[in-house]
Write a structure and sequence with these properties.
Layout lengths: L1 H9 L31 E4 L5 E2 L1 H11 L3 E9 L23 E2 L12 E9 L4 E3 L1 H4 L4 H16 L3 H5 L4 E2 L4 E2 L31 E4 L5 E3 L12 H9 L3 E4 L10 E3 L4 E4 L3 H6 L15 H11 L3 H4 L7 E2 L15 H10 L3 H8 L2 H6 L9 H13 L29 H8 L13 H15 L12 E9 L5 E8 L2 E4 L8 H12 L10 E3 L1 H9 L2 E8 L4 E11 L5 E7 L1 E3 L5 E3 L2 E3 L4 E3 L56 H9 L4 H10 L5 H11 L28 H8 L5 H10 L4 H10 L1 H4 L33 E11 L7 E8 L2 E6 L2 E4 L8 E8 L3
Parallel strand pairs: 8-13, 17-21, 18-24
Antiparallel strand pairs: 1-2, 1-3, 3-5, 4-7, 5-6, 9-10, 9-11, 11-12, 12-13, 14-29, 15-16, 15-20, 19-20, 21-30, 22-23, 25-26, 26-27, 26-30, 27-28, 28-29
Length: 849
């Protein structure tokens, strides 16, 4: 023991006690999904507090020289059966009675009971020191090591902090309308029972408006049940803000909803407001399910396998490489579905999983904050099969329950925290749009793959837009980069219109037995809407120098290796309330888009002339150089870098009020020569997809936009950040100078000017080609895209259930070895009836030519 004591004394300076703000990773390995429950346990560095599994702790020791690690192993305790356990392990032990997580009456958070064993391990010989051993060591060693051990044990782990532990959906705020609510003296008295909607006679989901006493039905749910929206329509017509759900009123209160605040609220004067219409709150009894109970029922059902997608089918659980489930971290099903699909794409597998060892070797000192490391960790976790094992079910000791596909799976907490950091939506635990997350992740891949291979090129393609002036027959061609084909839903092309009209008629008449009918939309109709020419009215033609009519045709200038198609199911109603179109589209297994290949300028076709803007100086100013910091009275040929063009401020203001970026508005007015709002608007509509659309306006004679920053005042930290993304120092300098040394703007600017920067070129390590050994040929101008035949086959699709992208649930189906597999968070099963007609995002791959 003396030897161990001496070793501890020699490394005492590297043993720290966690302080407030320190990130303690004691639940998950920084480089894998191993935890203290895994074989071999987890080693926490007692200096950086990073966690490592056994195979990676030796690497960390060899790389950093750190020797002292806090070793944690956990063993699951056997659970005792109680009267509430069904023995099957499927339903919760206690039925939730509160819309909450991690508090009494709410949904259970996974809180297993474990026996923990902790000790200090000294590398490289893995000498072990227990708390009892410390008692015999010198005071200075015992105190420091004991404090460090106690601090690590007491610290809130990072994964615990990221996980949703406590959330109460029933905590409601007092409505701002309640204290001074005006109630009409209209003589209305409400009976204690027998309520019906005054419009459609519906007897369920009935609400009374607290201003005028109108009794009307509630909202219609996404599946056609619920009400007919008459209470909502009444608010929209009258502005009377608050209603109470009849049947939920008890002496303790009732369900009160504020349409103006769009939330369940409290009404401290509810007894008084009810008494106004003859309702004695103290004598009322509950006869209807509260909104909380309805939401709890929905949340219980959403976890049931048969309800989510393939009802009435016994699904066979699958395990093995590429069949790993992902834990839902609280509305993270959108992330789970997207990443499951992306790691079936060979480009992502090769970039991150095949290079796993190299990525780990090159990882920075804190790999939990490194994009490449965390993406590789996720990809390996999904594809290796190491975590694709049945989840332990203590409530099913006899193995009598039906297999449901639940796995140990992986919990992508570090990945989600890193990807969402700084983002107003993806950093939260709210539900998100899977399509928006896919584009967000692709954008991060683009930013982190400036040097080396870029897997997002698998989805990147060029779109050609051809605009033909109908008066002059001259054309204009533009190209833009895209990653997703968005198909509009043509509701007017439904093939079952009569069924839809009949179902709607029965619902309006209050027929509660009316079936839910889904619109059947042909896929060809959606494709036709994409490919057919679009008529542009009020198009300002540079050929005729006036407004006229034009046609715009969109075609593929290149076909990607993998094609993503989004069905635009989410739209806005007339009241601007988001809604989802409940449609069935016969999406094909194979797709041939060859006919949509762009052809470019045709022989003999004339192009619309580029209009040179007229001078923008006022008449009393000579058109010559304006004196500035670099000018003098003898030499007026130089422009000041702070010179701004003389623009029509009223036109710029009108465009800004429409929501367009200020710099885009200034450029629109400049490039149309101050000729008015219509011409500027046409310029904006024609250039919205330009990569530098919102970049600062650069005047002739200026090397950069207004507000440039001298090189000597640039932040070295900002320069280092951009260089670490694979750009050269010259490119980073140019970006920061163009954006007044603002890092976020500089990053956006540099990705909007890739074409301009290609001449500077970038190689590994952020050096320019001129600095690289031997140099190399510059890449062709424009974005790099892959191209080939336009023939595809479907290999995956992501489906959404719910009324909007902000709620509901996502699952994905992926075709593996000619078998469709459904991934529903931790459940992975063979799919029997893949609902290909109900998808939201479809993923195709190119088939051989």
């Amino acid at each position: 023991m003396a030897d161990v004591s001496e070793v501890l004394m020699s490394v005492l300076s590297t043993i720290r006690v966690p302080k407030p703000g320190d990130r303690v990773h004691k639940d998950e390995c920084a480089l894998s999904f191993s935890s203290p429950e895994s074989e071999g346990g987890l080693y926490v560095c007692m200096n950086s507090f990073l966690g490592f599994e056994s195979q990676y702790v030796d690497r960390h020791h060899a790389r950093t020289g750190q020797r002292a690690y806090f070793h944690i192993t956990r063993t699951r305790k056997a659970k005792k059966e109680d009267d509430n356990n069904s023995g099957s392990g499927h339903p919760p032990k206690k039925k939730p009675t509160r819309l909450a997580i991690g508090i009494e009456g709410g949904f259970d958070v996974e809180q297993e009971l474990y026996e923990e064993d902790v000790k200090v391990v000294i590398l490289p010989d893995r000498q072990e020191v227990t708390s009892d051993d410390l008692a015999t060591m010198p005071d200075v060693v015992r105190e420091r090591v004991s404090l460090s051990m106690a601090g690590i044990m007491a610290a809130d782990s990072v994964s615990h902090a990221l996980q949703v532990q406590q959330w109460d959906g029933e905590v409601r705020q007092e409505s701002r309308h309640a204290p001074e609510l005006k109630q009409l003296d209209n003589g209305v008295k409400i009976p204690p029972s027998g309520w019906r909607c005054e419009v459609c006679d519906l007897q369920e989901n009935i609400w009374m408006n607290l201003t005028d006493g109108k009794v009307l039905c509630g909202r219609r749910y996404f599946d056609g049940s619920g009400g007919n929206n008459h209470a909502l329509l009444h608010f929209q017509q009258t502005g009377f803000p608050i209603a109470v759900k009849l049947g939920t009123i008890t002496p303790d209160g009732g369900d009160v909803y504020s349409y103006d605040e769009d939330d369940m609220v409290l009404d401290s004067k509810l007894p008084e407001h009810l008494a106004h219409f003859g309702i004695n709150m103290m004598t009322m009894e509950k006869t209807e399910r509260t909104m909380t109970e309805l939401e709890i029922a929905v949340n219980q059902r959403v976890g049931e396998w048969e309800v989510i997608q393939e009802s009435g089918t016994t699904l066979r659980p699958l395990f093995g490489p590429g069949l790993t489930g992902m834990k839902n971290l609280g509305n993270s099903c959108y992330l789970n579905s997207v990443m499951q699909v992306l790691f079936t794409v060979p480009d992502f597998q090769k970039k991150y999983v095949s290079n796993m060892e190299k990525i780990i070797d090159e990882a920075p000192s804190d790999p939990t904050q490194d994009f490449k490391t965390q993406v590789a960790k996720l990809g390996y976790g999904l594809l290796s099969g190491d975590y694709s094992k049945p989840a332990p079910d203590p409530g099913d000791e006899n193995g009598a329950s039906e297999p449901r596909g639940d796995q140990i799976g992986i919990a992508p907490r570090m990945f989600k925290a890193l990807i969402g950091r700084g983002h107003p939506e993806f950093s939260t635990n709210r539900q998100q749009d899977a399509q928006e997350f896919l584009l967000h992740f692709i954008n991060m891949v683009e930013r982190n793959c400036r040097s080396g291979s870029n897997p997002s090129e698998a989805f990147r393609f060029l779109v050609e837009e051809r605009i033909v002036c109908q008066q002059s027959q001259k054309a204009k061609y533009t190209q833009r980069v895209d990653y997703i084909v968005q198909l509009p839903v043509q509701m007017d092309q439904a093939t079952n219109t009569e069924e839809l009209q009949e179902a709607e008629r029965r619902r309006e008449e209050g027929d509660t037995s009316a079936p839910t009918v889904r619109a059947q939309i042909p896929f060809t109709a959606c494709m036709a809407a994409l490919s057919e020419p679009e008529i542009l009215t009020d198009f300002w033609s540079s050929a005729v120098q006036s407004k006229t009519t034009a046609t715009k045709t969109t075609r593929f200038a290149s076909f990607p290796d993998h094609l993503v198609i989004q069905i635009k199911k989410f739209t806005f109603g007339l009241d601007w309330v988001p809604k989802k179109l409940d449609v069935s589209i016969d999406v094909p297994d194979t797709l041939d888009l060859s006919a949509l290949r762009a052809t470019g300028q045709q022989p003999g076709e004339e192009l619309l002339p580029e209009v040179a803007p007229p001078p923008l100086m006022t008449p009393d100013v000579e058109v010559k150089g304006i004196l500035g910091f670099h000018g003098n009275e003898e030499d007026d040929s130089l422009y000041s870098p702070l010179l701004s063009p003389v623009l029509d401020d009223s036109t710029v203001s009108q465009l800004c009020e429409m929501g367009f970026p200020m710099e885009a508005c200034r450029k629109a007015v400049y490039y149309t020569g101050n000729t008015g709002i219509d011409a500027a608007m046409n310029w904006i509509m024609g250039h919205m997809d330009d990569p530098d659309f919102a970049a600062p306006l650069v005047m002739p004679g200026c090397s950069s936009g207004a507000g440039t920053t001298p090189t000597e005042s640039l932040s070295e930290e900002h320069l280092a950040t951009i260089v670490s993304m694979g750009f050269s120092r010259d490119q980073a300098t140019k970006a920061l100078r163009a954006t007044s040394n603002v890092l976020d703007r500089a990053v956006d600017w540099i990705f909007s000017h890739l074409d301009d920067l290609e001449s500077m070129d970038v190689s590994e390590g952020g050096r320019s080609a001129a600095e690289s050994e031997g140099g190399r040929e510059p890449p062709p101008p424009g974005p790099r895209v892959k191209d080939g035949a336009g023939k595809y086959e479907l290999f995956a699709f992501i489906s959404h259930m719910g009324t909007s992208t902000m709620c509901g649930h996502y699952v994905c189906h992926i075709k593996k070895d000619q078998q469709w597999v459904i991934f529903n968070d931790q459940k992975v099963c063979a799919s029997e009836k893949p609902p290909k007609d109900l998808g939201y995002l479809y993923f195709y791959r190119r088939v051989g030519e």
